[in-house]
Amino acid sequence: MKGIIFTEFLDLVEDKFGLEMVDKIITQSELESEGVYTSIGTYRFSEMLQLLQNLSANTDVSIDDLLLTYAEHFFSVIEDSYPGLLATYKDPIEMLASIENHIHVEVRKIYPDAELPTFVVEEKTANSLTMIYKSSRAMHHFGLGLMNKTFEHFNSSAEIILEKIKEDGTEVKFIINKN
């Protein structure tokens, strides 16, 4: 997993819960990196999972809710760092439908060894989209949060239904209907 995911996560934890919480979750985790991350480094997903589990245990906020909050934070990073990418699109459905064939292609240019989830578009209309999310890392709520922020970015809204295809969350169907 790319280091930017870790550095931004720890920034969010500091902003929302304080520097002491950052130190606490790092100390409580058994991290090969010892909690030292660079945005361009590559780290094991197990480290992110430990940080999330410890943050959840210390705050009584579910991991899914933490991932939703983190996605909202991370979308602002995308807005600030890659405004040209977002400006390519005029509609949230178009943007979400292009995750696999455009956005992930651009991400791989910056982070060639990034392990990204797969999004397969099953059905698309002007106002709806059905996609399948597949990843060995069950971070579908991070994806859901990014989708919510995508609609907000375009001053729009949608009903997004998440259906687990696999109980462990490694395969999920998103059914999106623009309001």
UniProtKB/TrEMBL annotation:
Binding positions (heme b): K2, H104, E115, Y133, S135, R137
SUPFAM superfamilies cross-referenced by the UniProt entry: Ligand-binding domain in the NO signalling and Golgi transport
Molecular function GO terms recorded: heme binding; metal ion binding
Pfam families in the cross-refs: HNOB
Domain of life: Bacteria
Keyword Metal-binding recorded: yes
Record's protein name: 2,4-dihydroxyhept-2-ene-1,7-dioic acid aldolase
InterPro entries the UniProt entry points to: H-NOX_domain_sf (IPR038158), Heme_NO-bd (IPR011644), NO_sig/Golgi_transp_ligand-bd (IPR024096)
The Heme NO-binding domain, residue ranges: 2-160
Keywords for the protein's UniProt record, in alphabetical order: Heme, Iron, Metal-binding
